[in-house]
Each structure stands twice: as structure tokens, then as C-alpha cells.
């Protein structure tokens, strides 16, 4: 079996748990997920089967969309609702929609984030959550991420109470921590905050409408129709700059040849997807580091048999 299986990850399972269960359902070992989702988070988790594991990183690198909830009034150790309460500050008066929309606008574009201690980012060879569980605080790397769009989901004019919550939708780049974004929203409003609910609604080109639950996958596999739900490898690369080549050049690509950079891709910064005339993904190329005007293979997806 080969292709991309769009899974709707349930709450309470890690991404690794999902892969483990799918290996048993599908009776195959060559399975990989495309980016960790926290156990409390539901959502779109594309699963790569067989040869499609070669393109997992390109799905991970593509944009994501989330729907979440921010709760203003207290922060937690994990920046979400699973952690212990750290700081509390009752909301005085009310928070207006205009205030929140102004904050969201200020967080649109390129922003700097420091990953939470309870995250999978590695520092000195260990994941941050390993340090956190041991009670060790370490310096965390700040990184830039891009918030393409962020907006409120519900209609309201103002919110009041000791703590208040509101829902939002965000389109963002790889590496964005929505938990941390929720904390940043609170800080800009003058209060401690945390992410109280989160669901990933899109990963690369795959959305909720494309997804199957684990139960649906098991049922489809049992009656032999699961392959109808698989997405082709080409879907994972559709957002990359494309270089379509003829059959003669395709033979060279499948042998790993270095090629001249086509004029329309001279200014491209990053990977290039090489396709056959029939629309089959053959390889991923990058600009050659030492040969100007040339591109070299980063990953061959279709080798000569």
C-alpha cells in the first residue's frame, strides 16, 4: 500500500500512538506521521504509507490551519489546559472585540516565539519536555514563524467575568506553537492566558473533509476499500515550485543527474518538485551549493527499476 492517508487524530493519543495502531491495522511497518500533535489536540494528521514516507517532511513543512480557544485569566505550566496553574489574574471590567482584534492584527506576519518547556524541541540532544519533567529550566531558542491570517470565530461585542474565553482560527507556518500564541494574546491584553482547546483543521492540502477516523480506517481495511481514500504522493508536493520534464530528461533524473536550472526557477529559494509529463512526482531538487546555475537531487522519489 502506498500513498497519504489523512487521519483525524483523536484526543488522548500521541501521533506516535496513532502510527503504532495503524501498523497493526494495516499490517505494514513503513508508516510515518507528518508532525507531532499534542495528546489533547485533535485534528488532521496526514499519515505516509510505503514510498510516501519519502515526502513526509514536505507535508510537515507546508502551512497549517487551526481552530482554538484562548482562556484569559490564568496561565499554566504547559500553556494549555493540561498543566498546573502558574499565575492568576482576574479579568477586570470587560474585554472588547475591538481590543482582541487589534491584538490579533499585531500578531499577524512574522513573529518571534520561544517554544514552551513542555515541547518536543531539542536542546543539547534532549527534548524540552524531558527537562521540564525533571524540573530543570533551560534556555530555549527563539525562532521566527509566520502567522498568515488570524481571526475570531464567534460574534460578540465584549466579554466579562473572572476569566473569559474566545475562539479563533489561524493559518500559520511550520513550527508555530498555538499554545504560545494563546499566551502571547493574553500578554498583549494584560493578562495571563492559556490555550484551552485546539484542533488542526488543515495540514498542507488536506482538511477535515478528507480525513478518516481510526475506526473508519479499520473498517475500510477490513472490506478492502481503504486504498480509495489514499491521496497520491503528488498531493504532498503541490505547493512546491514545479519543474515538468520530458521522458528523456526523466531517465536522467531517476539516475540522480545534476541538471541546469530552468529559467523560471532561477530565483526560487528552497526545494523544487520535478514532475514527468504524465504528472508523476519523480524527485525533489535543490540549487547546487557549488555549481552556479545547476540543481541537484535532494530526494529521488522514482528510481529506475
Automatic annotation (TrEMBL):
SUPFAM superfamilies membership: Pseudouridine synthase
Residue numbers annotated as active site: 38
Keyword Transmembrane among UniProt keywords: no
First-tier enzyme category under EC: isomerase
Coiled coil location: none
Annotated family: Belongs to the pseudouridine synthase TruB family. Type 1 subfamily.
Protein's UniProt name: tRNA pseudouridine synthase B
